[in-house]
Design a protein that fits this description.
Chain A: InterPro entries: PFD_beta-like (IPR002777), PFDN4 (IPR016661), Prefoldin (IPR009053). The structure holds two protein chains of two kinds. By secondary structure, chain A is mainly α. Chain A is built from two helices and two strands. In chain A, helix 1 (13-55) runs antiparallel to helix 2. Chain B has one domain (30-169): Orthogonal Bundle (Helix Hairpins). The chains are: A mainly alpha, B alpha+beta. The A-B interface holds A 1-2, 4-8, 10-11, 13, 16, 19-20, 23-24, 27, 62, 65-71 and B 17, 19-20, 22, 67-68, 70-71, 74, 85-90, 96, 99, 148, 151-152, 154-156, 159, 163, 166, 170-171, 173-174.
């Protein structure tokens, strides 16, 4: 077949698979980002609550538990808050690790695809 | 597309990858092929949004289950303790009242739906709720598999559309100087 003018490189099945993989990773990336944002917000809220507790004057604390508020003393509440925050922070660290992995894979795919297709392909994020 | 990766989407025909546009387009009209691809694209897009919706619905349920688990865990914690638990309990929107949970409470009532509540021992309740959470998460994971399949199809279709379009442009460019 005669080479058509400005015919870009042919897309092979392998390329298609890479493009699909990139699409998936890109989705994952945004989802993980969203999760991290929510967790960080929650962690900040917990910190605010801890700070409020420090200002409280030893009264019973009403701790939101499921659908009710449980009455407990300040110390127990503080312990619970700290435990909860440690857990959330751990989750965030884990998610950030995942995010990094996804990013690395995306960068690899990007490098391969851009080196083959140059500016005829646009891998948006 | 690997079949093992698809959940209940397996009945859906996977999108064909066009190996060679020249061969594929032989004796075919570009605009017809484009329309066909567009139609498939729309179908998959619709499917994607449905899957996203039902996944969001399921994801919304998980915190609900977790709240219940939290509560049962608290009851378990206090099961053997001598103190009773005092709570502020929501009677209706924005209206709370104080309630006390008897010390040594050993059973809890779980709402099973259809206006049915069943009494469970605390450990049983915890087990059931945790199983519910596992099921919900498994369901979400299944949805994710389906979503991946649908998204791959969408991406493949997008690429195919672009390739057929470019092929057509090139055909026209070739035809021009000849005319």
């Amino acid at each position: 077949m005669p080479a058509a003018p400005s015919a870009g490189p042919q897309v092979t099945r392998e390329d298609q698979a890479s493009i699909n993989a990139f699409g998936r990773l890109n989705n994952q990336y945004h989802e993980i980002q969203g999760k991290i944002k929510a967790k960080k917000k929650y962690s900040e809220d917990l910190e605010d609550a801890s700070n409020e507790l420090m200002l409280a004057d030893g009264d019973t604390v009403k701790y939101s538990y499921g659908w009710v508020f449980v009455h407990m003393d300040e110390e127990t509440a503080d312990d619970k808050l700290t435990a909860e925050r440690d857990e959330v922070e751990e989750d965030v660290t884990k998610l950030e690790g995942e995010l990094g992995d996804v990013r690395t894979k995306m960068d690899e795919l990007k490098a391969t695809l851009y080196s083959k297709f140059g500016n005829t392909i646009n891998l948006e994020e | 597309m690997a079949n093992a990766e698809t959940g209940k989407m397996a009945q859906l025909p996977p999108v064909q990858f066009i190996e060679d546009v020249d061969v594929y387009m032989k004796d075919k009209a570009a605009d017809l092929v484009m329309r066909e691809l567009q139609e498939k694209f729309q179908t998959f897009k619709l499917l994607e949004s449905r899957l996203l919706q039902s996944r969001a619905r399921m994801m919304g349920k998980v915190p609900h289950i977790e709240k219940a688990i939290e509560m049962v865990a608290l009851l378990l914690e206090k099961e053997t303790s001598a103190e009773q638990i005092t709570v502020d309990f929501e009677l209706s929107d924005q209206v709370y009242t104080k309630a006390t949970i008897n010390k040594g409470t050993q059973t809890v009532y779980l709402w099973l739906g259809a206006n049915v509540m069943v009494e469970y021992s605390l450990t049983e309740a915890k087990g059931l709720l945790e199983q519910n959470r596992i099921n919900a998460n498994a369901n979400i994971a299944n949805h994710e598999k389906d979503l991946n399949f649908v998204r791959d199809s969408i991406t493949t279709l997008e690429v195919s559309l672009a390739r057929v379009y470019n092929w057509d442009v090139m055909q026209r460019a070739k035809a021009k100087p000849a005319a």
